[in-house]
Each structure stands twice: as structure tokens, then as C-alpha cells.
Amino acid sequence: MNEFKPFEDKIAGLIASLSPAARRRITAEIAKRLRASQQQRIKRQQAPDGTPYAARKRQPVKGKKGRVKRAMFTKLRTNRYMKVKGTNEAAVVEFTGRVQRMARVHQEGLRDHPNLYSELVQYEARKLLGFSSHDMSNIRDSIIKILTY
């Protein structure tokens, strides 16, 4: 996390002077804002660097008729599956439960079985979670806003 180092050095003294409960409050607030920005970015079908996700593969002729009308990851980006946690040391945004494996396959571009009886399929890498420059500025603004109160 080298991109955080200069930012971390500037506010380390301020954060160290806070009580553990205040630090938990700050990290929980940051995690919630990060989740919201990640959800919006996934809704726009963009990677953290702003590039669009790879398009879905064409379905075989014998498969479903018509095109898939639903955007990718609509359920995955909901609060039910994308959980946040704020501790004294960290703000965490993660996928939980059974969707965690599916999210990892798409995040890293791994091979997986789409369903129980199908063959292995190579998935394109689609970065679901990650930091953008906009996220970094939102984190900084959140900390400044919370510390000024």
C-alpha cells in the first residue's frame, strides 16, 4: 500500500490521539463510503482505473434465446453480499458468503464451472474491488470532515 504512505504519515498523529471508539467510528464511516463508491463503479461496469469491463461472451446457439438483458453483478453489488467492517486499525469492504468465490474468480480472471454440470470456463479479469483516485480523495475528505468536528 505504497500509495497510502504519504497520506498516512500526515494524519498518523491525529488518529493516534483519538480514542479506540472514535477510530472505529471513523473506519466504519470510511468503509461505508468506500462500499457506496465501489457499488456505483460496479453499476457503471468499470474497473478502478476507469476502463470498462470485458463484455460477456456470446451464448452458444443451443443456449438461451435472445440476449442477456441484465447488467453483470447486479445482485453482487447489494449490501447483502458486499459487507463493510470498521475496526480500530482498518476499514474493510469484502464479499461474504457463497458469492465470495465467484467474486474472486471475476476479480482475478480465473477458471471456474458456471454451473454444476458444465465444463471449466476461463473468465475475463473484471476488477470488482479496488482503489481509484476518486476513492482516495473521498477517504481523505471523510477523515478531514470527521476530525474537524
From TrEMBL:
Residues 36-68 are annotated as: Disordered. InterPro entries: Phage_virion_morphogenesis. Residues 55-68 have a biased composition (Basic residues). This is Phage tail completion protein.
